[in-house]
Amino acid sequence: ADGAVFGAVDIGASSGRVVAGVLDDDGLHLEVVHRFANGAVEVDGHLRWDLTGLFAEVLTGLTALAARHPGVRSVGIDTWAVDYGLLGSDGALLAEPVAYRDGRTASVVDLVHRRVDPARLYAVTGLQFLPFNTLYQLSAEREGPLWPRVAQALLLPDLLACWLTGERRTEATNASTTGLLDATTRTWSTELLEALGLPLDLFPPLIQPGETLGPLLPDVARRTGLDPTTTVVAVGSHDTASAVVGVPAEDRAFAYVSSGTWSLVGLELDAPVLTPQSRAANFTNEGGVDGRTRYLRNEGGLWLLQESLRHWAEEGPAPDQDALLAAAAALPAGGPVFDVDAPDLIAPGDMPRRIARAVQAAGGTAPPTRAALVRAVLDSLAVAYARTTAEAEALSGQRAAVVHLVGGGSRNALLCQLTADLSGRTVLSGPVEATALGNLAVQARAAGLLPADLGALRRTLRAGLALETYVPSGS
Ligand code: LFR
Known about the structure:
19 strands; ATP-binding; transferase; alpha/beta; kinase; nucleotide-binding; Rhamnulokinase
């Protein structure tokens, strides 16, 4: 294993990174070799990702990776879920992909639900209702000008992987977020594709995490300096799937919170829970690595803070985020909370004002200062984390002894402590880069260098990490 190197491309809605994973006798060591910003911008009447620009950042990152490490074995790609690019018959991208926060699906949700009853949708896909799930986006797309020219759709990590290798496949964990995959068989649902008038071969065939997609295109190898034998290996290309692999759990009795732009809160199960109660609680059964089920809910996340900071920076001098967080932490407990899942908080715009309204809707008084608003966000996130963990247990019958908080939010000591206090459980925080870690671990495992069993794999990862422990106050 000594010195084997893997590369992770991990792109979230607000930032991306290319990370080297060096495997030696003490474990898998991560080095971020390139970071870049991301964000959707309004172009041509829609909120869009600059995927072409992101691909240029990927190449820059891979170039930095090659310069630092000769002999990179493979590269894996993950991004956020549900979004896709449309290709014409010549394989060219027809337009920069529309971002999931765009409002275009508002008018088609009812139409979709008239074609397929929501109860049937849940029974087949097990997917939480979110207005931006791919099936709604595609239904909006069918009414649009590009549709007659569409030959194929590729989910975003698959599209980046295609630009690196020339190979077109749909990675299975991300496919599970489309609302078009059967949660029980984990194959495309012919029933739903037909009911929605979508071609059965709209997406390329599935590929499972750990399978090799193919070697780099000669031109990509030349431009990055990577060896032409470097392959792209499928990983949990849905960032949350990789984050869950990267949860450094000791045994199976764990809950996780992957805390980034969104908060993904739940359990890992052996099989989906497709009951009416589960649907009523809006829990999702996303596909995990090794056929596991990621039983979770999307809760609001750090987007609420990011978007507030962005708004304040537009109004005047950019606020000092660390100072604001410190001031928020110094405020007394028991302040107002709001529903972090309010649909009204999904779109970009004046977030502080919408949060103030949400607080008032919950019977509180609007936060008088920026610090108070930040505190209300953190208190409300922790309330959501505690409630959702308990709900996941009740609905699945699986117990969680500890809560692992991973991702950017794991840096926030106040959020971790509040989660411990409100959930009454020990919270273990870290790593921040759980997603890149899970991406790299699946590659190293595919190379035969880490344990095949997911539990053993996680224990190996844990051995190399320093986790922070938060015990519930008063216990
Ligand atoms: C997190 C995430 C969530 C998904 C949302 C939109 O980054 O991938 O799992 O619901 O973004 O794609």
